[in-house]
Amino acid sequence: MVTVSEIAKNKIVELRQKDGLTENTAIRVAVEGGGCSGLMYDLQFDATQQPTDHLVEDKGIKILVDRKSLLYLAGTELDFSDGLNGKGFQFKNPNATRTCGCGESFAV
Question: For the Core domain, which residue ranges apply (predicted)?
Fold first, then answer.
C-alpha cells in the first residue's frame, strides 16, 4: 500500500485545484528504469484507471499504482518538503536499499 503524509495531501489538493482538476483525479505513482541508482519515481495526475492498476485511497487522495510498480512501492509514503534542503515530493520507500542525492532515483 502507498500512503500520503498530511503535508503531501495538502499539496496534492492545492496542485489539483490550480490545474482545474476534480477530486476524482488520482495521483499516479510509478517506477521506471533509469536515474543514477537504476530506478526512478514518476508522479502525475491521472483520471483513468487501467485494468491492471491498483487503486488505494489515503486521506481522501486516490492513488493509482500499476502492478509492476506496486512491487517496488509497497509500504511507501509520499511526503512533501518545502524546506531549505529541497522542495518537492519525496518518497519514503522502505524497499529502497540505496537512493540518489536527487531523491528521484533508487535501487532495491
Answer: 2-104
Is residue 42 within 8 A of residue 29, CB to CB? The reply is yes
Among residues 99, 98, 59, which one has the least CA distance to residue 90? 99
Specify the CATH class of 3-107 in words. Answer: mainly beta
The type of residue at 31 is V
* C-alpha cell read off for 33: 528504469
pTM score, whole prediction: 0.85
Where along the chain do its domains lie? 3-107
**Which pLDDT does position 84 carry in this prediction?**
65
Per the CB < 8 A criterion, the answer to whether 72 and 66 are in contact is: no
Which amino acid is present at 42? D
